[in-house]
Structure formats: structure tokens, C-alpha cells
Amino acid sequence: MRLYLSSFKLGERAPDLVDMVGEGGRIGVVLNSRDTSRGMDGDEDVGADEEFAALAALGLRPEEVDLREHFGDPDGLRRTVEHLDALLVVGGNSFVLSTAMVHSGFLRATDERVRAGDLVYAGYSAGSCLAGPDLRGCHLIDDETEHPVGYPEAGRFDALGWIPWRIIPHWRSDHPESEDAETASEWLDASGLSYRVMRDGEVLVIDGADRRTFRVQPD
Q: Pick from 92, 77, 75: which is nearest to 28 by CA?
């Protein structure tokens, strides 16, 4: 399994992502955590150009993978991603993202390749949260009632289960959700649930048996 999990954007170890994917690698960009801000036509600006430019600057070849196009069609999603070397799942609302993943069959379409190390999963913020066992604690950061146009339901807490602990991003960082992240970590402590906090800039890299956490020093 090869995972690149960051608190905010690509963090401080973007060259490590390139090493994992390979220069010139094809990387699908999943923007569905931001679907509340756009209609089904996808015309609204949800930061796609910025995400694509950052990846292209690293020598990668980005393209969007829109999970809404595969609601009820996990086999179609599998065919869509089969030529990709990696996926980048960006930040936004973790519950919206979870709902999109459930209804597109994202786990079914990607799990075998991710676990085999054939498909790199990269995520930041909400995208990192989805790598854990569930989204408990995230309800103190994100609004689980957000219901984008075209979605069959809202408020899914399902996650991918690729790591055994929950990730709380933006902890003690210069970020609008930093206080909520602190509250979420306290709630998880009180609930006896496993989790890791991440400051913005920090990255967790899992490459087979090799697991590295790159910390940043607080200001």
C-alpha cells in the first residue's frame, strides 16, 4: 500500500509524492468534497485549476475524476481509474466526500490496486480523513448535513479503512478550522477512539512496510 496523506495541500514533502507516482505519472484529481459549491454541470470554480497547476509543476499529468458521474456504477469508475498511477483526493467537506465515495463504489473500484501498491492514494484534509476507519470526530469540524445537488443522501460517516486511526487535520495551525480540530481531538480522547493529529505542512507517507511522518515545528 502506498499512501501520501497531508493536512493541507501537498504539504512539505511533494517531491516524495513524485517519487511514489513516478515523474510523468497520471494522477486523477477527486474534487467531490467541494460539490456543495457547484451544480451538476460542474461550471463553478472549486479550485481545479490550482490543483492541476500544482501537480503539473511537479511533472505529473493530472485529470479530474468526478465521482458523481459514477453514482451506482462502480465498474465504470474502475474502468475510469484503471489507467491512472495515483489519485489525489482534495480537501473540503469530508461527509460530502464520503457520500460520493459510497455511491460511486470508490472503495470497490480502488481497494485491490491500492492495497497492492499499484495505485497511490494521496489526500489532504478531508482526503486524508477518508483513509481512516470512519469519520467520527469530523462532525466537530465539517457539517454532516451538507447535501449537494444530485446527491441521494447526506451525512455518511463511512471511510476507506486503509489506516487504523482517524486523522484530524489543521491541528494547532494557522487555519480557520484549527479550533474545531482541537475540539475534535479532545472528543476522540474522551471517546477512547484512536486518532492522529496533523499540523498544516505535515505529511504521513506509507510505502509498503515503510511508514514516515514528517513533522513541522510550531511557530
A: 77
Among candidate residues 61, 3, 58, the one with its CA nearest the CA of residue 28 = 61
b/e per residue, 170-193, with b = 16+ CB within 10 A? bbbbebebbebbbebbebbeeeee
pLDDT, tens digit (0-9, with 9 covering 90-100), for 56-94: 999 999 999 999 999 999 999 999 999 999 999 999 999
Contact 92, 34 (CB under 8 A): yes
Write the pLDDT tens digit of every residue in 142-155. 999 999 999 999 99
CATH numeric code, 2-214: 3.40.50.880
Say if strands 210-214 and 26-30 run parallel, antiparallel, or are unpaired: unpaired
Q: Give the C-alpha separation, 169 to 146, whole Å.
A: 20
Each domain of the chain, given as residue ranges in start order, spans 2-214
